[in-house]
Every structure is written in C-alpha cells, then in structure tokens.
Design brief:
Distance between the termini: 67 Å
Structural class: alpha+beta
Strand order of the largest sheet: 1-2-7-6
CATH class of the largest domain: Mainly Beta
Number of helices: 1
Helix content: 10-25%
Length: about 140
C-alpha cells in the first residue's frame, strides 16, 4: 500500500495548482498580471518544399505592416495596430492587443527570399516561403570501385 502514503501530498499539490490558477485568472481580468499573449497569433506549418504561415491581424491596416526574411531562416513581422478611440464611451474590457509589435520567427529550414508570397485578406496574413535549394535533400550517387 505504498500509493496511499503519497495521496495526501498529491491532493495538496493539486489544491495548490488550483489556487495558483485561480489567482492568475482573477488578475487576468485587468489586474497587474494582465499581460497580452504573444501578438499577433501565428500558425506555422511545413507543406512539401514550403513553409506556410497564417498571422491573425484583425483591424490592421496594410500600410502599418511589414515582413522581412533575414538570415536565411528568419521571418520578421512588424507592424502597429492602432487602438480605437471612444468619443463618449467607457471601456469595460479590452482583450485585443494594440500598439507596435515585432515577431521574429525562426523557420525550420533556410528559405529563398526571392520566392516568398504574402497575401492579406479578411484580417489574416498568409505567407508562403519556398525552401532554399541548399536545404532540399540531394540524392548522392554512389561510386563502385
């Protein structure tokens, strides 16, 4: 019956985790720990010889957005989403991130900066980057002596 000796400890650890989560949930509604998550939200996946990204940028103006490929395998997304102003209203909750941002993503392989396509529609930036020739697998001929 060794398992019963640890049950009080596990119960206490579980209670501690619940209390800790409640603490951060309480402050998440505007308290001192209310820090926005990484903005903007990004999905990255590999598809054949491409790496593809979707970046959520609702409310962004295209003129406030820039993307760069640097170092062979890094994509930088920079921009600024301006906070809407209220003439007569009062904010009760603000969960969307506003202000300047820069996300630098390390890609899973070097990409060809001349073969990058970016489209922005309905608040979503879609980027497709082609794998650089040096990153593509090459079949090596085997010589026989």
């Amino acid at each position: 019956m060794r398992g019963t000796r640890w049950e009080p400890l596990w119960g206490q650890l579980h209670q501690f985790q619940n209390d800790f989560n409640q603490l951060f949930n309480r402050f998440g509604d505007g308290g001192m720990f209310n820090m926005p998550s990484a903005f903007p939200a990004v999905n990255v996946w590999e598809e054949g010889d491409q790496v593809r990204l979707e970046v959520e940028l609702p409310g962004m103006d295209l003129k406030d957005l820039e993307i760069y490929v640097t170092g062979g395998n890094q994509l930088t997304i920079k921009g600024e989403r301006k906070q809407p102003t209220l003439d007569k209203g009062v904010w009760h909750r603000q969960e969307r991130g506003y202000g300047s941002f820069a996300r630098v993503l390390t890609l899973p392989f070097p990409v060809d900066p001349d073969k990058v396509e970016a489209k922005f529609e309905n608040g979503v930036l879609r980027v497709s980057l082609a794998k650089h020739e040096s990153a593509k697998p090459r079949k090596i001929p085997i010589k026989v002596n």
